[in-house]
Amino acid sequence: MTYLLNALSVILQLAFSLVATLFVLRLLAEASRADFHNPLSQFLYKATNPVLAPVRRVIPNWRRINLAAMLLAWLVMVLERAALFALMGVAPHIAGLLLLGAADLIDFVLLFYLVLIFGWSLLSMLQVDPYQPLMRLAAAIVEPLLRPLRGKLTAGTLDFSPMVVMLVLIVARILLARPLIDLGTALALGG
After folding, report:
1. Closest Cα partner for 77 from 169, 181, 3?
2. DSSP string spanning the chain?
3. Which of 63, 96, 100, 143 is the most exposed place for a label (fewest CB within 10 A)?
């Protein structure tokens, strides 16, 4: 029976991660002012707007931060944890579940940036067309993180700023997200 539970938990995590990715991408694309004429940006808008539009009437943006997308991504993470606890047959405490949702969202965003910067750097080194829609969206999202270090960590034509930012993201996952996940798990399980 545990094999079936493991398979179901993987499927649940994948499904919730895909939904969370849409909301996180929408949040980051709006915050970084990604080109709306990009076909991927238009897809994000069309895929998330039916759910976001009613929520945005109640929760407006704060500066360039789409608070409605952040709230929905957090709710997706909370629902994912609740579903995983239900699969295990555990009734978690609500405070721990809410904290776990926030910790999971922080960890998800940090990991998302880590993967995106790595992929963008790799594709940049392979000299993929910078006007390709995926490259334009990825560049718009990673640029705010790379901009402070851009040009300061170069050796010849190599720019090491993506490597430094990726290292900072890994350390943030270890020092910020992991303790929050541990605390949320302890609270959820009543420990």
Report:
1. 181
2. -HHHHHHHHHHHHHHHHHHHHHHHHHHHHHHTT--TTSHHHHHHHHHHHHHHHHHHHHS--BTTB-HHHHHHHHHHHHHHHHHHHHHHT----HHHHHHHHHHHHHHHHHHHHHHHHHHHHHHHHTT--TTSHHHHHHHHHHHHHHGGGTTTSEETTEE-HHHHHHHHHHHHIIIIIHHHHHHHHHHHTT-
3. 63
Write out pLDDT tens, residues 104-124: 999 999 999 999 999 999 988
Q: Which residues pair with 154 in a beta bridge?
A: 159
